[in-house]
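Cross-check.
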Amino acid sequence: MDDQPATKHDLRDLEGRVDGKLAALEARLVEAIHDSETRVLKAIYGYTETISTRIDGSSKKAGELDERIAILERRLLEVEKRLNLPPAA
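Predicted model, tokenized:
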């Protein structure tokens, strides 16, 4: 660089380069933010799928237990009837 004062043309060129670099930086930042959001959402969706599967399995197991308890209660009532015992309160 020489020690010549900058001309208006030099300043416009500099302004154009700075604007271009700022626009490129903004585009990269927007893309990085979008990619981060996408990764976070994918992680959340994966987690909710896992939890949903566990809840479904727990609900099925609870239903099976209810059914087994009902069967045991019926069988106990039949035994009580055969022995002519009053049902327990």
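The helical segments are 8-83. DSSP finds one helix and no strands in the chain. Passed to J.P. for a second look.
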